[in-house]
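writing this on my phone so excuse typos. first protein, seq and then structure
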Amino acid sequence: MDEFDCLLYEGSAQLPPELSELAPPRPWKKPIGQICWGLALITITLNFFGLNIILPAVGAALLWLGLAPLRRENGGFRFAYACATLYAVLRLTVILLQATPLDHWLASLIGQEWNTTTGPVPLYYALWTVLIQLVLVFAVGGLWQGLKGVFHQAGQKPRTAAAGGLVMLEVLLLPMALVGLEGWLLVGPILILWVCLIVSLRRIGKSLDQAGYTMQPAPMAVSNRLALGVWLGLHLLIIAALPLLFSRLPAGVQTQVYGTTASDSPLRSELLELGFPEDILSRLDDSELVRFEGAYGLKKEGYRNDESDLPDGMPSIVTVEVPVRDEKYGFRTVYLAYLHWNPNEASGGYMEGVQIAQDYQGVTAWTTQPDGVLKWQDSAGNAYTMPLNFRFDTDNAGTACYYANFSLPKDVSGPTEGFLFWEATPTFPEIVSLYNFSVTATHKRSCWQYPYTLPSELLASSFHAPSWQWRMYQWISEGQLAPEGQYDPGKY
């Protein structure tokens, strides 16, 4: 050992310990790790505690943050970064639309349904699924090509099979989502394969660090923590604030009524003799009364709330069945569902919904689309009416139903009343038929609801929402379709 070597050996003991333990640079560890975590949180979602919103939002941000420093390396990374940006924007757009009625308007504008193994869904939602998943496929594809380009630039054989496998798996997830594939026996093996690919993708970053390829991260205007915080804060603002702006439905056409005194006609007297409730009958005008011309029977059922009851937002429901003579069919039956909101309940609601299931046991009968009207008085004593518009749809069991969504008026003095009419005509009028129907009312109690949900959607799904958000009541009635002389209101 010469004199110079001796000096180096003696001086090595005096070097700072940090220099001897200094780890080699690993520029690929952080971006590849963020990309892997981003893909993981995007793909695996949990449908409770809002994690189905939070996890994909964090995942989209991590995917974008992981690709951001790589965007200047080659064209593949630039394409992946652009697709990740578009993916995050589309995800945010969905969150925004679901907080407003615009989402429902677009779904109704497109119309049609897409059938899955779990039931039909609006075509609008299927198109959103296709668009978002395709953008994610392109982002992962750009990542794959970008990694291949880096290996070529480092003079090594590309080891990017994991990235290519993720592209194919993301493509496979698209038809699985459109079909509605469920069950651990089917999804479990694919999930295991997906986890193995994510782990392998993480190892690609280690291979690039060991290859000695120098990566120059593209500068970021803000820190990762600030970007992620702003991104999540924007989601929170949309979810928390926007639903408050749309807590009530737009008011329908409200018409002031003059001269509300009921006319004294022979038909009113006939209906009173048949047992028509006098208080309800007095609230019917002549155009509504004429529906019962030729009545030969009557059956009344239902319940009435006591004015002293604590307000729960639910109306009392009374149904009246009146068979009437008909020149063409022999007879038809007119139905009235009377809804009564107590004064201390009417102005406190946000949304109300009514579902009428006509003939849900499949009696061969023709039924008309219900029509209805709300009636009330304001604080000045002026009487108003507002029509209720029903639309046809089926519930989750496939039963044909009619739905109406509305909000009760704010300026109310006294009760608010709803009058719902429809008719049933039997296919075989000479046979006495049992006729069953139901009237279900739901009441939204909270001003906040995400995603934006109409009462009709809740009614159609038969989903029992938390009591602090919704209340629901169903009245089921058994009546009969019987010609004159055979009608017996006490038979069923």
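second protein below, same order as before
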Amino acid sequence: MTQFSQLELDEAGLRGLVAAAMDRICGQLRGLAEQPACVTEGGAELARALREPLPQGPSPVAEVLATIFERALPVSFNTAGPGYLAYIPGGGLLHAAVADLIADSINRYVGIWRAAPGLVQLESNVITWLCEILGLPPGAGGVLTSGGSLANLSATVAARARLGEQFLDGTIYSSSQAHHSVARAARLAGFPAASVRAAPVDELFRVRVAAIAAMIAEDRAAGRRPCMIVASAGTTNTGAVDDLEALAELAEAEGLWLHVDAAYGGCFALTERGRLALRGLGRADSITLDPHKGLFLPYGTGALLVKDPAALRRAHAAQAEYLPPMQEDPDFVDFCELSPELSRDFRGLRLWLPLKLVGVAAFTAALDEKLDLAQHAHEVLRGLPELEIVAAPQLSLLAFRHVPGRLRGDEPAIDRHNQRLLAAINRRNRVYLTSTVLDGRFVLRICVLSFRTHRDRIDAGLADIAAAIAELS
């Protein structure tokens, strides 16, 4: 056997490799619910132990898989498990894993329509479905991205294009609770740091629309060029949803681009309660959505959806002699003209396949369950003595802290107490929570968004919170 032939797996070799990997995957999934929600102890030592030189020859399959599953994997956040209530959970839907196996095996390029018209159409179907879910008008379109950060960047570039060479005088308005990728996107798009203005929020952590209106008037009077409003449809800190209707009215009146960062919250538009909370979403010029959040897909599946796809094309398209002719037929699309990416994977299949195999109703039911679970957690927590709900769930995220009577008035001591409380909850390892800081207060967060999280795990987490409070008391 030549070294070249080792790169080509025959059918028997492929089946054997997949079978060996599948044995490991199934074993991992079989015990998922019993695995700790988070293990980080010994991470530095493990990482150092896994450093290795460039392999010069082959290694046994069993040995390689053991490195992944027995050594590297156990020390990690268990993001695929039911107890992961931290940050904004991702899903890891197994149907999508099969889609990735198919997509990577056939290895077709979908950045240009002519390279794989049928496969590009499958991904275009996905974009159309997402636009429908969010209430965008007919003719809307967009592109799948690696996640919300890249989607926010492309939306900012599209908004900037309307200012032409005068964009350095442009201004962008967002909430003080906006995701940090909003300011980063503006910086990467070339806007000066002072161009991004963060407006204050109300008691529900929603941006104050009147404050943005006043900033716009102030900037116009100073000779600056208001460009873009960035609204939040589910902030990372508290899950707050801005008044999208009012912001749409303001953007239209002022002639500004309205972008909605709905990375976390947008998929709740599938539910009746979500559509009510997100009313006005379909009026946006652009929307960031993360199907790897609200549709439970593997990490690396984001989307930017726009009312007018031509605006994305004007901002991103570029020509080169070595590229084939781009599409002029409005029924088809070259995705490379809608984003910064030319080389990219076939992301669309990891959403198309689950939706085809399962149907959208199953996703709607799962999201309704997450809304119910967050409300249940809220009801139980607010009944605990000396527990303060800092942010009630507007979708499936809530924030709280414990304020013992003996510590009232001493905010630094309350913060230290809640830091210890968080550690005591997570030490039990049935759920994993994270924290944030709101109005200078250290608070704990619960975000329910895994398709594997059900009432039993939420009740276990609530019991751990109550037990941790009793322990610290």
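The longest helix spans residues 360-381. thats all i got for now
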